[in-house]
Write a structure and sequence with these properties.
Strand content: over 45%
Oligomer: single chain
Number of domains: 1
Order of helices and strands: HEEEHHHEEEEEEEEE
Shape: globular
Largest sheet: 8 strands, antiparallel, barrel
CATH architecture: Beta Barrel
Strand order of the largest sheet: 1-3-6-7-8-9-11-12
Radius of gyration: 22 Å
Number of strands: 12
Helix content: 10-25%
Distance between the termini: 53 Å
CATH superfamily: SO1590-like
Length: 210
Amino acid sequence: MKKLVLLVCVFVLLIVATGAVSANKPEPDQFTITGYTTNDPFTDPETVIKPNGHMRLHVTARGGGDADVTSDGLCASLAEDLDIPDITTCQALCVASQNQACGVAGLVNGKPFTGEFTFDEWVELRMNPLTGAIYGKVKNNGIVTITTVTPDASTVVQFKGEADSLNVWGKFKVEKKTGTGAASGLKGQGDYAGNAGLVFSVTFTGKLND
């Protein structure tokens, strides 16, 4: 009986210890980019459309900071295309469509990671030239150049994954030796997921450290 009680006590202690380790496990780093497209992919000079319907579309976007002020007219036009009324600024467009302010927001190494970004993406797809129907996997890859105010830093994040008409998802990594300021030694990788569209919000989750 004493042995049984001892085994039960040990078992309970193991559960408590495991719980303590799990509770102390650091949360993954996470930041979100929320922004808007700044080009027409079908007329962009870097876009390639082949006769067989295969395409490599170049998409540019940005969000946050002073760039939003210079893009307010563009955002008002995007809002009209999306049938969102009474929008005159980029910030209003981001909040109305994504429930978040334009820009970068999150935590890296447990510290605030906020600022603005620019975005270059290449979307690779196959489309039937007669019907316009898209078939097969849609691939998306590119880079996000981030400039943060908190902390004073910049870095480039490379991403590669897939997309459909509503969502994007895949893997990302911080490009080596691209960081400046507080992000001069930043490195790491993880997953991203978010929505596709003229206005979007994508969250990057992983382990980043310097």
